[in-house]
Amino acid sequence: MIDGVLAIDGGNSKTDVLLVAADGTVLSRVRGPGASAQTVGVAASAATLDALVRQAARRFDPAARAPYARHTAAYLAGVDFRREQEALTRELAELGWSTEITVENDIFALLRAGTSGHGVAVVCGAGINCVGVAPDGRTLRFPAIGRLSGDWGGGSFLGDETLWRAVRAEDGRGPDTALRPAVIDHFAVSSVADLVERLHFGEVGRSRLQELNPLLLAAASAGDAVAREVVDRLAKEVVLLASATLRRLDLLHVPVDIVLGGGVLTGGDQYLLDRVHAGCDRAAPKATVRVVDVPPAVGAALLGLDKLGVGADAEHRLRGSYR
Q: Which residues pair with 140 in a beta bridge?
């Protein structure tokens, strides 16, 4: 067992596992598929994570056996309610990876990756979510389970919105848009209606609609009015999440960091980011908005190192290894 942390950032589409010594040295790292318990179930999620953890441990020491580290910091997509947290904590603790374990939503790893531990983080990946932690420890976040919990946005949602507008442009119910030929070209179909039929019969997976997100952003940047309507709404939603969190934590008028993460926000699309920055400047003029510059797995590891009570040198070493 190493004197250090087993860190897991488990998203919907990928999982990163780091084995990190107490001085911040990365001993091994592994990437594998997403394993959200909401999607595959608790047992299957734990099995996937266990395989990745064992792989990471044996990359460092081929003879490694559990326990592998003093603390496990598992920050996972789909841990939205206490009962999900408790179920996964029980399941993962039984695997014996470490003497202590923390299981939480992956949004906390994003926040720690971009800050010292307090501020606001907004993620837009497969879904959309936000968390805020005040300097006094008060915490606020959202259930983030889609429209059922009031959400608007996320990669899956935006893919559906893009297709919806392309369908209506083709059949005359909506204005023409560059999204229509972009969808046809991307999926190599004869028409948008052809794609809809293939989706209906399972010949094209519904999850592939997330592939349309870069096309949506590109069309908005190029001036397409229909695409801009969607992207403008997304930027507004990001600002709403951040500002509502700051207001409820009494941080709206004080200097604070707002960290952006997830594939949609970290893709570097300037049209989207300009509108997020402008909206945050209006709503929270003392806040500093930035895109996270290290992977959320680093945030998971930092949260684990925080639990061990190590010094700032370890954080500098860990961050430096990714820059």
A: 132
Rounded to two decimals, the pTM is 0.93
Query: Based on the domain organization, do 280 and 139 belong to the same domain?
Result: yes
Are 238 and 125 members of one domain?
A: yes
Provide the number of structural domains found in the chain: 2
Three-state DSSP state, 29: strand
Q: How far apart are CA 220 and CA 305, in angstroms?
A: 41
Asked whether residue 233 falls in the same domain as residue 138, the answer is: yes
Amino acid in the structure at residue 53: V
Q: How far, in Å, CA of 278 to CA of 285, rounded? A: 10
Residues 95 and 139 in one domain: no
Residues 56 and 170 in one domain: no
| Beta-sheet strands, E only, within the chain | 2-10, 14-21, 26-33, 69-76, 98-105, 119-124, 128-133, 139-141, 256-261, 287-291
Q: What is the pLDDT of residues 120-179, one digit of tens each?
A: 999 999 899 999 999 999 999 999 888 899 999 999 999 999 999 999 999 999 999 999
∠ CA 299-305-309, rounded to 5° = 140
CA distance 316 to 302: 10
Strand 256-261 to 287-291 pairing: parallel
- CA separation for the pair 136, 118 (Å, rounded): 9
- Which tokens sit at 215? 């096309």
Q: Does residue 172 share a domain with residue 81? A: no
Residue 94 belongs to a domain with what CATH number?
3.30.420.40
Inside any domain, residue 186: no
CA 305, 306, 309, 315 torsion: positive or negative? positive
Q: For residues 301, 255, 264 and 304, what is the CA-based torsion angle, rounded to 10 degrees?
A: 10
Calpha distance 193→182 (Å, rounded): 14
Residues 247 and 281 in one domain: yes
d(CA 267, CA 182): 19
